[in-house]
Sequence to fold (93 residues):
Amino acid sequence: MNEPLFSVAVIRGDGIGVDVTDATLAIVDAARDRVGGFRLDYRNLDGGAGYFRETGKDMAPGAEKAAGEADAISPARKSAARSASGCAAATAR
Fold:
């Protein structure tokens, strides 16, 4: 199967962000499984208040660049296009 692959930058952060992000990704995976026709490559990136406390930096080296190159950012969305059915979709690489 030659389904398009979309990269998703995942920044869990800390605190409740971890739980919210995990729940969000479970919903996205369930929707993908139901609709089909595409694959997702989750790229976990370090960042957040806890990371800042440990390192003095808001995000890991290269994380901002990686997020900018991704098709989508979870939980926030970098960009999306609407299909005829009204579903959000990103452009495949």
Remarks:
- The beta strands are 5-10, 39-44, 72-74, 81-82, 88-89.
- The longest strand covers residues 5-10.
